[in-house]
Amino acid sequence: MRKTLIISFFLLLHSILFSQAQDSTKVTEIQEVLSFAQFMELVETHHPLAMKANLQTEIGRMEVRSNRGGFDPMAYADVSQKYYDELQYYSHQEGGVIIPTWLGIEFEGGYENNDGTYLNPEQFVPEDGLWWAGISVPLGKDLFIDSRRAALRQAQLFQEASEAERTLMLNKVLSEAGKTYWKWFEAYYSYQVFDQSVDVVELRFQNTKAGAESGEDAVIDTIEAKIQMQNRKAQFQNALAKYQNARVQLSTFLWQEGQLPLVIRDDVRPPAIDSIEAMNADELNGDSLLANHPLLRFNRLQIDQLDIDRRLAAEKIKPKIDLKYRALQQAFETNREVGMLQDNYTWGLSFSFPLFIRGERGKLQQIKLKLQQTEYEYANQEQQLMFEIQAAINQWNASAQQVDLYQDASKNSLTLLQAEQQLFDIGESSVFMINSRELGYIKAQLNWIKSISDNQISRVMTYFQLGRLENL
């Protein structure tokens, strides 16, 4: 009987020591290992929210394209005629092209041809029509910035903000996926602990029962062994339910092209525990913690957009002074010597200015206050982010130390279990004490598994706080 208990003891060691778990028969039947890097790549590539995040950049690009349309050259044509009592009073035909520029200057050119019995004298042109080329220059308001240039610049900032927003959206998805992966890792190996230990307590119960029937063991040991078996089976069922739920939860992050949800097969498992190294914040290599943080970059760009609104509002306080000039030239036939008629031109100067400019001054002051509010929020957010990042780093470093502590505690629990087995072999221990030591060893193993999971989750959350999960 003692020999069978010794055999069950070594079965316990063989099945629960996870540094050797990949050598067990149950594990060798498993076909695939899903690593953390593979899983995160699948999420980043195929998850619908990740694909939605990638579209944010395209939205920003289209916003810029849309506002570039304000600088597209524009062709126009205008024909106006009047006929009355079988008489053509007038015929006015004009067409041309207007070319706006980033400097606020507009170039234009076109052709005009007018005739008619009662044509307005100022619209008389040569018989073959009149060509013209001109320029329009704002000398007051709209000289340095106008609504068109402001809209394009804000669209360019929006494009940059869209990239930052994409990173934020993607980081959120990847952080949830990363936490779920390591919870699945913990649930899988916790389930393995109880799956293997149930076999051990069942064997012990059968051996104790046989020993009681032969008179070698006390009947009370049979009751003790049965209680152990029942408790262990209950723990196994709980661990199995947690593992199944964790696997279902992990499946929610796996998709095919963002359209078809995938389900993890039963034979897919996480990597072996001994392949997972405890990590700490040393891998950050002293990088600036807030360098290019997407949230700060996003808010900084919002401040820049408000500053453009401020510049535009300040520009509107100026008087509007527009200068226009057109050089005129007759249309020509192939046999006519032509050239720009330097003495033929039109020009004009327009001026307007609100006497009180209350609307413009109120708008400007309002934008300045909003800008100041946003800058205060930015400063507070920067400080808050710094705290959250430092807290995440502290938790990460602490969790790395806990992995070593729990691993050492697991080894010490194994030493106690071995010592208790030796006492049991010489009759100085009991089934109760053996079970107590086994429970201590199992708990130490579970703590070790959880510490590895917590360490990896802390790493994920640190990179999330840094806004760099995409590069993890």
Strand-helix topology:
Elements: H1 2-16, H2 25-28, E1 32-33, H3 36-46, H4 48-68, E2 74-84, E3 87-100, E4 106-115, E5 130-138, H5 147-214, H6 219-251, E6 255-256, E7 260-261, E8 268-269, H7 294-315, E9 320-330, E10 345-352, H8 358-425, H9 431-466
Parallel strand pairs: 1-8
Antiparallel strand pairs: 2-3, 3-4, 4-5, 5-9, 6-7, 9-10
Look at the structure and name the CATH superfamily of the largest domain: Outer membrane efflux proteins (OEP)
* Content-based structural category: alpha+beta
How would you characterize the largest beta sheet?
Answer: 6 strands, antiparallel
Q: How many distinct folded domains? A: 2
CATH topology of the largest domain: Outer membrane efflux proteins (OEP)
Give the strand content: 15-25%
Oligomeric organization of the protein chains: single chain
Order of secondary-structure elements: HHEHHEEEEHHEEEHEEHH
The global form is elongated
Give the termini separation: 54 Å
Which ranges are low-confidence, i.e. pLDDT below 50, for 5 or more consecutive residues?
1-31, 333-341
Strand order of the largest sheet: 2-3-4-5-9-10
General description of the model:
The chain has 472 residues and is α+β, with helices and mostly antiparallel strands. It has two domains: 2-66 and 149-303 and 371-471, Outer membrane efflux proteins (OEP) (Up-down Bundle); 73-142 and 321-357, no CATH class. 59% of the residues lie in helices and 15% in strands. It is built from nine helices and ten strands. Helix 3 (36-46) crosses helix 5, helix 4 runs antiparallel to helix 5 (147-214) and helix 5 (147-214) packs antiparallel against helix 6.
